[in-house]
Amino acid sequence: MQSSVFISWFVIAGFRNVLVRDYLGISILRVWNIVDRDLPTLEAAIRNMLSISGTVQ
């Protein structure tokens, strides 16, 4: 069984790389908007995957 939400791990890894390598040029507002907008969906998808896999009860 698969999660119904597509997670773009490539985009997530790319964002991480930008944060790590260019932290002085990062807009805090942009980071906050991404966290505020996208993190809840990512969290729900990961919780769903863990639930389906039986890792979390």
Class based on secondary structure composition and strand pairing: mainly alpha
How many strand units? 0
End-to-end distance: 16 Å
Per the principal axes of the C-alpha atoms, what is the gross shape? elongated
Helix run count: 2
How would a crystallographer describe the biggest sheet? none
Mean pLDDT: 84
Portion in beta strands: under 5%
- Classify the helix fraction into a percent range: 55-70%
Please tell me about this protein's structure.
This protein has a domain at 25-57. The chain contains two helices and no strands. It is elongated and about 40 Å long. It starts with 8 loop residues before the first helix and ends with a helix. The chain is an all-alpha fold and 57 residues long. 68% of the residues lie in helices and 0% in strands.
Question: What's the arrangement of secondary structure elements?
Answer:
Layout: H1 9-21, H2 28-53
How would you briefly describe this protein structure?
Helices cover 68% and strands 0% of the residues.
